[in-house]
Amino acid sequence: MNIFGWLGEILAWVKGFVFGITNQVMVMPVYWALPVMIVVGAADSSLLSLPEINDIITITRIAKNPGEVWYFPIFPAIGSALGCMLLYEVARRGHDSITKRFHPESIRRVELIYRHWGFFALAIPALLPPPLPFKIFVATAGALCYPRARFAAVVLVARTVRYYFWGFAALIYREEVLQALKWLESHFVLVTGAVLALFVLFFVVRGLMHLFRNRSLKTEASYSD
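Above: the chain's sequence. Below: its structure in token form.
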């Protein structure tokens, strides 16, 4: 099997997993959906990665059950905050074991962002949806011993705002959302593959830029010697 066939199988599995959970949550009573969303949200925001599943479930559930817009978004927000706290605590207690998952230059850049922007360095990434990376900000907050209570409050408020935004968007544009979700389910593999290809292209270009810059610096240093 070539790499494209292998990648296609993985994406098909991810599609089945994401929409399988979504379809299950759609028919659950609220008292079952609450713990499921907390577990899924915590898993996605901690050491695992479930691509955009909280956003998809929240939008789909509210589009199909408009009356739940007032309370359902708080479920994934609580789960996401708990998952972020878990990652934060792990990074705080074992700095190297978590931060080594990220590129050292990315860690340094995030540290500079924290020192320069403070509160907003955590609040803005927590508000914005993928593909903006957020876990690196959570891990770095733990490694830098960002105040625990402030961290929890910022993440919970930001995530609540984010999921309520999706909820009211699903309520206002209900028919369009349902059509878009059907299209996404039908083209999930293609869309996810295209996003992954863009990520790969971005990192390749960035790597080449660093390579050429390092070579130019070495050349300048040799001339100066």
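The mean pLDDT is 79.
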